[in-house]
Amino acid sequence: MTASHPAPRSRRERPAKPALSREGIVAAAVAVLRAEGLRKVTMRRLAQELDTGPASLYVYVRNTDELHAAVLDELLGTVGPAPAGGTWRERLEQVLGMYTEVLFDHPDLARAALTARPSGPHYLNLVETLLALLDEGGVPPAQAAWGVDLLLQHATATAAEHSGPDAAGQDEWDALRRALRGADAGTHPHIAALAGPLLSGAPAARLSWAFQALISGIERTAVPEERPRTTRPHEGDTP
Question: What is the pTM of this model?
Answer without folding.
Answer: 0.80
